[in-house]
Amino acid sequence: MTDTTRLYATDLPEAEWRKSSFSDAGEQCVEIADVRRTRGFIAVRDSKTPTGPAIAFTRAAFTAFLPHVTNTPAS
């Protein structure tokens, strides 16, 4: 089991990180990796520090988080 209290992107070698298509050239963005199949969570990291810390979200927590960072209402 992954220790999500001290999670770094480098702890997730199987992760396929994706940056939003809405990301700007100013590098003010995050990347996500869906590692639910192998780890049971969705990971988020700062695109400027790809080997730095990552945040782990359950599916429910990520769904609740999305409306706060997008223009999409929660479903």
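the 2nd protein, sequnce then structure:
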Amino acid sequence: MAGVEAAIDWLARRSRSTQLILVGVVALLLGYQAIRLAGRDPGSELAYVGGALFLLGQLVGFTGLALLAYRLLTE
């Protein structure tokens, strides 16, 4: 449990844009793996969940990048 607490403390010290980028990348990778695990079955619910995670990861990641760009351009 000490490793998890250290990871949470490390993430808490990061800026909001960095947190968004990291969470977006994790969601994107989880979604990609879920899509791959679902295979070629068009009715697989796992593929739909993976696709939703993938899109959510992209949205959150790009939001983090936009926030980072805004902060850099306004300083």
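The radius of gyration is 16 Å. Helices lie at 2-12, 16-38, 45-74.
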